[in-house]
Amino acid sequence: MALTPGQARRFYDRFGRAQDLQAFYEDRAIGELLAHASFPAARSVFELGCGTGRLAATLLARELPADARYLGADISGTMTCLSRARLHGFGRRAQVIRADGTMRFPVADGGWDRFLAVYVFDLLSAQDARAAVAAALESFAAAAGEIPDRQWPAGPAAPLAVPPARTNR
Ligand SMILES: C[S@@+](CC[C@H](N)C(=O)[O-])C[C@H]1O[C@@H](n2cnc3c(N)ncnc32)[C@H](O)[C@@H]1O
Residue 95: which domain range? Predict the structure, then answer.
């Protein structure tokens, strides 16, 4: 069910670390993701809706190269705090920011070569889902050294150039 950013923030601010109890059904799908997304070859990972940082901790501890960077973003202040605390030990490799509901995200120098959103798209409006996909494609194009086709996607979901100053840190 789609939630507005405000509804999502209020719900997940209350839900907090109970999110980790969803592992019983999430972990099978996450296992497939880990098996097929070539994380050992990744340089930079962005995760939308990072929740408590559970997947990020696994990636940083076991999957990503030591010099790979991770940025998580979440609309919930509670989730942002929980994930920051969980990832504290990874130092500058990991950063978590508060999303502002605009689907505009900072792009790493050279782009993000992995863009994750795990159990998040079902919560987004169609417009926000399109915007998130557009942001991911923009980032992949930057990572691949290509100039993205700015004609795609047409319509309101094309907030492609992403100045870092637009996010809440
Ligand atoms: C079902 S939880 C999944 C959390 C985590 N990915 C996991 O698998 O454990 C959805 C997460 O997305 C976040 N979220 C929902 N709408 C969002 C939005 N518009 N922007 C950023 N984060 C959002 C919620 O705060 C929550 O942490």
Answer: 5-16+38-166
pTM of the model: 0.87
Q: What residues does ligand 1 touch, defined as CB less than 6 Å away?
A: 5, 8, 12, 19, 26, 48-51, 54, 73-76, 79, 99, 101, 118-120, 123-124, 128
Residue-by-residue DSSP string for 42-97: -SEEEEES-TTSHHHHHIIIIIS-TT-EEEEEES-HHHHHHHHHHHGGGGGGEEEE
Q: What is the pLDDT of residues 109-141, one digit of tens each?
A: 888 999 999 999 999 999 999 999 998 898 888
Q: What is the pLDDT of residue 119?
A: 96
> Of all protein residues, whose CA lies closest to atom 17 belonging to ligand 1?
75
CATH number, domain with residue 115: 3.40.50.150
Pocket test for ligand 1, best of 54, 55, 74, 115 (most atoms within 8 A of CB): 74
Ligand 1 atom with least separation from CA of 47: 6
pLDDT at 7: 97
Q: Per the structure, how many domains does the chain have?
A: 1
Phi-psi region of 94 (alpha: psi -120 to 50; beta: other; left: phi over 0): beta
Paired residues of 94 in beta bridges = 70
Among protein residues, the one with the nearest Cα to ligand 1's atom 5 is 51
